[in-house]
Specification:
The chain is an alpha/beta fold. It is built from seven helices and nine strands. It has one domain: TIM Barrel (Alpha-Beta Barrel). Helix 1 packs parallel to helix 3 and helix 5 runs parallel beside helix 6.
Length: about 250
Amino acid sequence: MSGISILMYHQVGSFSDIRTHRASYCDIGRFRAQMRALHLLRIPVISMSDAARALRGESPMPHRAVVLTFDDGCRNFRDNALPVLEQYGFPSIVYAIAGLVGGTADWLAESGHETPPLMTWDELRDISRRGVEIGSHSLHHIHLAEHDANVQAEQMVQSKALLEHELGLPVPHMCYPYGSHDLLTLEAAETAGYSTGVTCQRGAATAKFDRLALPRKAISFGDDTFGFLWKLFMKDAAKGQPVARPRGNVSLS
């Protein structure tokens, strides 16, 4: 495993058999086993801010490091994932949808899935005090690359401003909903003041990647511990080539 493996999670909990959008779900039992594997193998789990410093060359690149990211800000992160992370002392980042805080993940209804509650501002403040970084997942969870430069800029700027106002903390990290991004997206993220942006492109992040278009590795509903470790050590060995200001959508399958 070269570079930094930025792992992508969404919901963590107990779910019935999931046949579509499997990368949006992780069984809590498997999540516990995955975190235990990281602990037993002594794989460094670092924060997104520490990863950004390493990718900028401001600190040594840690060997085989992992970053744990959680999209959307579902309440089941706080209820299910966070206690496990705290057990091992693992840092993490939650990408919150600033304009939907306290609402529900309504976009999942389009595919017949339940719409879980999203954390409230008080809950986001609580997990922040407990050491979780909060990043932006846009203002309204839209496919950014399907919109013009003005809309993309509004989604970037307004979400950052709202999160920083409510949390009282800087928000330097961005996650593009659905992985949808193009050149305008990256330019908007840079102008808005983000230092990193993560996509759904598969691969490990290295210093050769544009830091506003970092790849991740999706952990899916079907990943047992073996599959989890395979993604860390084996999968994407020939994928995730370094990119700079890529054009086009890179969407989660």
